Amino acid sequence: MRTPHSGSALFSPTYVVARQRFREAALDVHAQVDTHAVDAVGPSGEALAIDVAWIGAREPRGAVVVTSGLHGVEGFFGSAVQIAWLRGLAAGDVDVPARMTIVLIHAVNPFGFAWRRRADERNVDLNRNFVDDGAGETYTGSSKGYEHVQRFLSPSTAPSPLSYPAFRLGAAWLVARYGMPILRAAVASGQYVDPRGLFYGGQEPSAATALVQSRFWSWTRDAGAVVHLDLHTGLGAFADYQLFVEPPHAAHVQWYWTHFDYERVVSVADGGVYDARGVMGAWLARHADGRRYRFACVEFGTHPEVRVLAALRAENRAHHHAPAESSVHAVAKRELVECFCPRNPLWREKAIARGGEVVGQAMAAVGHLGSD
Description:
This protein is an alpha/beta fold. It has twelve helices and eight strands. The longest helix has 22 residues. The radius of gyration is 20 Å and the shape is globular.
């Protein structure tokens, strides 16, 4: 997808600006836009909302859904991809085929986006919050060995200038003593024991989770075939991406290989790279009620994994234990945004271009869904 603006210009400095740009771009192409307010406010008291835009058929055979900002701060990138696609449509660079609808869900976690956090207003990681009791999942417990890394990942003190080098040393010691799988599992699987800790999945569905669970299929206008891309950042090679195929879709991995870039498709079934419970795509797959539904978590790489995890740890400490007006707080927020939406112009250009490409692949793929 060619866009009429440079990649860097598509990135917004704040949630408020991103939301305004998204809505303006959607209205420019005569999209239908619905707004779902959340019971929280932004840093300046501004209203927060999840916005949903539809373009295309009212009674579609197929739908492509693109969600952004499930992990709030990652919305800076996801929003830019959605705005780029809308502007490309306005410029005539992309077309929506007949009997197809495109659904853009902007800022699933607007609180995290506005406050530059990964979690929502209750410190809940929304992609660990779609707990499915029908699949044997519960809002309890943690990964094996989590007790060995809990205090390290979520200290009850504010960060300091020495936090980053201390993190590297502490992580190396933990890996040497307990092994990398324990640390990886704590990050990927989520936890339901420490409400102030990282990767906390909550004790019940959050408001945004409940909204998605109750409205998602009506947002797709009851299309029989749905391809859903959830945009994320922070894991993988710089400015490149992977499509994570979660366990409910593992049997269809050949379909993903056929319609997306083969080398970028990663199945996370059977304890793979991203073995988690309570994830959105898996919940929706189990509740598709006969629809032909394919989901991929599209993960764009930014900085090295150790830097990203250190930034998450520092921001969580600053959020809970440092004054909001302090320099420590500001530094932690700035580093978190950098780790999930790098300022590097090359990263931004490549990420926008590749984001547009994968959306285009999804649009081509949905027409084949169920026929392959």
